[in-house]
Amino acid sequence: MCYTRCGEAYFTVYKGLLIQQGIQNIPCLRVDGFMAWNVNNDKCLRCGGCVSVCPTAALELRDNVIHDEKLCTLCGVCEKACPVEAIKVTKP
Amino acid sequence: MRRVRKSLPSRGDKGDETMNDVIVIGAGPAGTACAKKLAEEGFSVKVYDKRAEIGAPKRCGEGLSEASQAFVGKIPDRCIAQKIKGARLYAPDGRYLDAILSSGGFVLERKVFDKWLAEEAVKAGAAVQANTFISDLVKDERGYFAGVKGEFLGNEFEEKARVVVCATGAESPLRNKALGVFSKLNSIDSCIQYEMTNVDVVPDLIHIYLSGVLAPRGYVWVFPKGEHRANVGLGIIPQDKKPGAYMDEFLKLHPEISKGSILEVNAGCVPVGGMAKDMVANGFVLCGEGANHVNPIHGGGIKEAVLSGQMAADVIAECLKKNDISKTALSKFNDVWWKERGNHLKRVEKLRETLEKLSDADLNDLVDALKPEDIIEFARGAKLSVLAKVLMRKPRLVSIARHLL
Prior knowledge:
By secondary structure, chain A is α+β, with helices and mostly antiparallel strands. Chain A has 2 helices and 6 strands, in the order E-E-E-H-E-E-H-E. A two-stranded antiparallel sheet of chain A has the order 1-2. Chain A has a two-stranded antiparallel ribbon with strand order 3-6. In chain A, strands 4-5 form a two-stranded antiparallel ribbon. Chain B has 3 domains: 20-56 and 111-183 and 274-349, FAD/NAD(P)-binding domain (3-Layer(bba) Sandwich); 80-107 and 185-271, 2-Layer Sandwich (D-Amino Acid Oxidase, Chain A, domain 2), CATH 3.30.9; 357-404, no CATH class. In chain B, helix 7 packs antiparallel against helix 9. The model of chain B is unreliable at 5-15 (pLDDT under 50).
């Protein structure tokens, strides 16, 4: 089962292997040490758009957007959905 | 008039005082509609809302048809910023077409409107509390959802209920944690909206600008709010170029709007399809925008939210009376909603998918071929065959029409 179900296929390099993520039947790898999810709180309008598209419930909107890196798969849909370029996801 | 809560015979194991019948998370149109109906039936209902002020900041174009009063209730004047006669639809080349609604509509003041809805729920007997963040759901020993964990002014608390209703809208992870429901990237529109003043537009029409260049897949809206104020918004398919950049381009082309000043900036992602198939679990119901109950063609959600909240309330009341809140019993809500609204909205989603394939030249021809009554028909969600009939009026579009039929 694909964990992310985000519909966005992308590739990542893990231990020298090219791994396809976000495709059914291939589990998404959460690569430790490559977590790169950032929100710019000055730009963020607290609209919660990123939360609504997050496939793994890794985001939560309180006073700021809270990110749970244990759940995040860096699929990047939040970055695409964000209306104001507040989120930056650097894929490994 | 405050309704006195009817005393109910004790039901099942409802022994302790702190046990609510229902907790509703979110005091928007869906949550308050659900709470109001349940409270009227005599159940004890608590509504929690995250915002410090219910309804603010708004995330909405604030348009509502007058016909919606049939289920929302008579909307008091203080909630209405501007009465509307109809819509003006602009083709990409600037030509436009007016569609006058027989019953008209409103541009609301959501900050007042949402509070009024909450007041109505309170009058019916529900309790509402703002500024309360619900962080998690609690399950009981049977694995049923049986309460919430929350925080109010820094104090954490846990509260129990027989049924938890999630009316949070799309912006909460709770719907994903409980049911695995979230919005797919291709079924949301990324939106930005400025509330502007000193804007010169015809005040009693809402203005819709169609253009694949200015707003790919979505549209630009200008909803007048009286005294030269207006909500100027834009929604597009999520992409790297953000709605703000598209908005700048739109304003450059429209000096009568861009001469105004920006009083408020709102953003948000509106679900435009992908209605949840399954909206219930044991002791848990998801309704409103959180279940993607939004009209996919224009992204309007107030009407759908209220309807889905009320349908959920009817089913919950029935289940509570029978003392059976299992998924099987509550799944009647799935059946009712899909029968009453779901299949209709699914058709609307298909219509949207078809319309988004049209190029700007096609859209020019389409607006040319449309008759005012067609627009109203589209906004309500007409069948594809209606669109096909419109397209048939233009020789260039016949091939697309044939494809539809």
